[in-house]
């Protein structure tokens, strides 16, 4: 990600973003243009969203979103996760911004992996409703699931080829191979 090197306020960012053809993320006064994704990135995200969609069905309580809706925390950051689920009724008040996700998923790319695994995860930990943060590799069948336990401590489970993935936050299980269906 490349930052535009001058501070702008959260409101300025939101005003610009609503009119922009290009998506940008915001972190503590800096704006970052989002790079385009690969076909594998897109397919993995689509496969995951399909699994979540089929699982949630017509749920009136939980909603899932793709990378077109922002998650934010106060005015610290505004991010576009590749996928997330919110079951909090407060998230129905704004069609563009969500504050109370319980599951956030990022498909890793070479340009964003370090940020997604480090600073972005630190930011997401500020969201009290977040139960799971999932990182999915494009390079091989590998999924890292970070879960907040009852004590508030984050624990990591790694899923690899042949494993059955469990997303406890939404009570979903699937074969990891299902994520990588149609991938070269």
UniProtKB/TrEMBL annotation:
InterPro entries: Nuclease_put_TT1808 (IPR012296), Restrct_endonuc-II-like (IPR011335), Uma2 (IPR008538). It comes from the Bacteria. CDD domains: DUF820-like. Residues 11-170 form the Putative restriction endonuclease domain. Pfam families: Uma2 (PF05685). Gene3D superfamilies: tt1808, chain A. PANTHER family: GLR1098 PROTEIN, RESTRICTION ENDONUCLEASE DOMAIN-CONTAINING PROTEIN-RELATED. This is Putative restriction endonuclease domain-containing protein. The lineage of its organism: Bacteria, Bacillati, Cyanobacteriota, Cyanophyceae, Oscillatoriophycideae.
